[in-house]
Amino acid sequence: MAKREKTVSVAMIGCGGNARHHMRCLLNIPGVKIVGICDTSEDAMAAARALDPVMAEVPSFRAHKKMLAKVASDAVEISTPHTLHTGQILDSLAAGRHVMCEKPLVCKVADAKKVIKARDKSGQILMTAYQRHFLAPYRYCRETIQSGRLGKLNFVSCLQSQNWYRGQVGGKTWRSQIKYSGGGQLNDSGSHLLDILMWMTGEQPKAVFAFIDNLGAEIDILTALTCRCRSGALLSFSVVGHSVNWLEDITMWCEEGTLAIRGSEVREWAGGEESRVVPAEEMGRSWSPDESFIAVIRGKEEIQTPPEEFLKVIQLTEAAWKSGDSGQPVKVKG
Question: Of 119, 84, 79, 86, which is closest to residue 101 (Cα–Cα)?
């Protein structure tokens, strides 16, 4: 008979669409129980309760501090407006909860260092819900590059486009307001791109030059960003927040080969013009941040997205914003 997993109880801070995606994932993991939900919107909490019959009696709260005080849980997951994350993370760690928080983990370098210090003091788990760390194409490229099989990395070009401006600025959502979002497309979906490139390649940007256009909004919409890394490699990021379509494209040129991620496909050139599509069985498995979070709590998996990885992202993001404002290259702290 298979050994029964330890039950893990999770409380949710935030009940919007993204949070409900995490709830669905958690409800599908054996031995996981959602024991509390929190949001300022009654409609969002009603939508969360409607996800599954087991959610009908889950207690709900309008304030996260009250939920932390009233509901015993092993962990919390946070999916709320970005500038609220720091306080919610600090309160949750202080209450003895493990924490997984949506990106961006926080919106300032100083706050990233603050939550890392609080994590260390609490002894709890803290991770960012960067799903690409758990997807096979990105993991394959990380392992290939860091193995040295294709030689030194020289150049990376990556592009992300999204119909973000119309939905957020046009819809006057919280993401379009700097007091809640902490930044625009670069700090939102673009955060995934900066993170995964640094994680896959192991590169540390040394200096950045960026052109940024807000298109009249409070927050950045279009970013053209170039980095020189400590190794000498060059990274080029194009973050396009005003597009009619979603597109993500990543190409990495090494001395002895090239890797390109096109959707869920990885194409590899090894020493010549001929390329191959890497078979799915060679890339390995994919899983979700929620599955990983629970596995880490159970002691079955190493943490894949620690806050130290996010610190690199916000250091690069802050430097890019400064460069965009000044029109000059800016050194990246770290």
Answer: 79
List strands edge to edge, sheet with 32-38.
Answer: 60-61, 32-38, 8-13, 75-78, 98-101, 126-128
80, 101, 130 - which closes a domain: 130
C-alpha 83/C-alpha 309 separation (Å) is 19
Q: Are 263 and 136 within one domain?
A: yes
Positive or negative: CA dihedral 191, 193, 199, 203: negative
**Domain end position, chosen among 85, 106, 130:** 130
Name the CA dihedral angle for 185, 111, 19, 55, rounded to a multiple of 10 degrees: -170
Which range marks the domain in which residue 184 is found? 132-267+307-331
- Kindly state whether residue 231 falls inside one of the protein's structural domains: yes
Provide the 3-class DSSP secondary structure of residue 116: helix
- pLDDT tens track for 22-37: 999 999 999 999 999 9
pLDDT (tens digit, 9 = 90+) per residue, 33-67? 999 999 999 999 999 999 999 999 999 999 999 99
Indicate whether 257 and 312 sit together in one domain: yes
